[in-house]
Design a protein that fits this description.
Strand order of the largest sheet: 2-3-1-4-5
Number of helices: 10
Shape: elongated
Strand content: 15-25%
Oligomer: single chain
CATH topology of the largest domain: Rossmann fold
Helix content: 40-55%
Largest sheet: 5 strands, parallel
Number of strands: 9
Order of helices and strands: EHEHEHEHHEHEEHHEHEH
CATH class of the largest domain: Alpha Beta
């Protein structure tokens, strides 16, 4: 039997991951007490004709018995069952924002402050995170993208590295993204803004895309950018990096940056050994102001 332990910090997407597995015909149980995990697995193994895949949601609410989980999982593996740990994580600032938006209280926030609950929870889950088979950082992931990643690992059995690559277009006049790891300036490329019939369009429109990419400089830059990113990613994976934000900027974040972000995303998406997403931060800002 294949057993998946779904865990992580509260607010990072554990419930979403369990729902995806449930939809994929995994037998799912949330917040099962640690002393019952081994008994549950033994029971499921006895009825393998009916249950071949199961998932258990476990978090810091398990309390003092949480430290027993590692030994329990070792015994489960020794019994011949496949046991994998999926750990869901996110940056503290994003977790706080999610809690405020949903108006929920953190399960470990004794004083009522979400920040304190997150800090305490991280301490309790340190060893579990260190021994996880998969770590998905949901800081920059939409719910749809998280579902796709869980399906890729546990439904389609795809290759996985603990890295989410975000390709982000932006406008320099609105500021460089604070979370950018790599920043590329494409303001040297021909600007569609000065072409009357292209000014109100964006890099999402084929006319603008073709105009930018007809430039030999754009095509060469695109090739060199893809080559460099493909070189860097394995090194980031080896380093243990879980999130990589590649920001591509032009003046307004509407034409050139959007086009080159599309180019990079399209040429990377065929080698999906990592999560990949595309976002255009400022593409609609000029239109909104008008």
């Amino acid at each position: 039997m294949r057993l998946v332990i779904v865990t992580g910090v509260s607010g990072a997407g554990k419930s979403t991951a369990l729902k995806v597995l449930e939809d994929a015909q995994y037998f799912c149980v949330d917040n099962l007490p640690i002393p019952l995990v081994e008994k549950f697995t033994a029971l499921m193994s006895e009825i393998q004709e009916e249950v071949r895949q199961a998932a258990i949601g476990i978090d810091a609410r398990s309390g003092k018995s949480l430290h027993e989980l590692e030994a329990v999982l070792d015994r489960i593996r020794a019994s011949g069952n496949s046991c994998e740990v999926l750990f869901l994580d996110a940056e503290d600032s994003v977790l706080v924002k999610r809690y405020k938006e949903t108006r929920r209280s953190h399960p470990l926030a004794v004083s009522g402050r979400v920040e304190e609950g997150i800090l305490l929870e991280r301490k309790k889950l340190e060893s579990l995170r260190a021994g996880a088979d998969y770590i998905i950082d949901t800081t920059h992931l939409l719910t749809r993208e998280l579902k796709e990643e869980v399906e890729r690992i546990f439904v389609n059995n795809g290759e996985f590295h603990n890295l989410v690559v975000s390709v982000l277009s932006f406008g320099f006049k609105y500021g460089i993204p604070a979370d950018a790891d790599l920043v590329f300036d494409v303001r040297f490329l021909p600007n569609p803004y000065y072409v009357d019939h292209l000014r109100l369009l964006t890099g999402l429109d084929d006319e603008v895309y073709r105009y930018v990419m007809e430039s030999s400089a754009a095509e060469e830059f695109g090739e060199k950018l893809v080559d460099m990113v493909q070189f860097l990613i394995p090194h980031y994976v080896k380093e243990g990096k879980t999130s990589l934000v590649i920001a591509i900027g032009c003046t307004g974040g509407k034409h050139r940056s959007v086009t080159l972000a599309r180019v990079l995303y399209d040429r990377l998406k065929h080698t999906r050994a990592y999560a990949l997403r595309l976002e255009h931060r400022d593409v609609g800002k000029d239109a909104a102001r008008k």
